[in-house]
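Progress against Task 2.4 (sequence-to-structure conversion) is shown through the following example record, which the project officer requested during the mid-term review.
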Amino acid sequence: MPEFEESRPFTEANALKPFISTDDDSMSMQFDLSLIQSRMRLDDPIALDLQYTRAMMAFLMLNPEPAKVLMIGLGGGSLAKYCHAHLSQADITVVEINPHVIEVRDAFKVPPDSDRFRVLCDDGAAVVAKTKQGTYDLIMVDGFNYEGQPETLISLDFYKSCRKALTGSGILVVNLSDVEPECTRLVGRIWQTFGEPVMALDIECGGNRIVVASTEEVFRECAGSFGRRWAVLPEVHKETLRFTMASIEYELEPWQGAKKPAKVAKPKKRGR
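Structure tokens generated for the chain above:
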């Protein structure tokens, strides 16, 4: 049965206690009855059960082996568990602002902290703002509370901080609530920060839109070798991206055959 105690609407948004419900197949985390925040399959706790989480793994086509990863928003730990299990080379930091969410990490089989995995109770926007330039290969943003998307995680300043915190070829992945016209406005903020290499993936169910942003070179290289990259992707990732692959390929079409701009030769200096 769901645990409703202390889950009161007048509680501060980032301190609301989630409740957990279980059926024969899955365990879910919710802040209210209208929306599932996270869901875990009981027969395979590491698998990504919700479609939007599978779509957030689209970065694998751009960079299948990120070395340093920052995740904002733990929830039931779906993305954290998957990346911890299947990206063995990655050093992963997860930032979650709500201590009550972290308290139930064991129930959702989130791995313990280690030398390559850690969960911090902190404000994700503040952490990114203080991050040294060029630190992360990948930043994943999936931060929601019962009121929706916190303004601090959807502001233009936040996206600029993310761009600064990424390496030169780093990737930003953001889960947005697909409610218009707000969603298009937020995609525009990301586009304003990253320029043209931004893809927006619509999710058939769940009311989400996944935005992936990087650099022109990263998009161009992926588009030019898409088939080869898909062919060598581990089977577990192919299964995860099975319903998203066509959308990713479609979004990359403008970059197919795009060539790197030729460098303009500098005039040679003449001796005097």
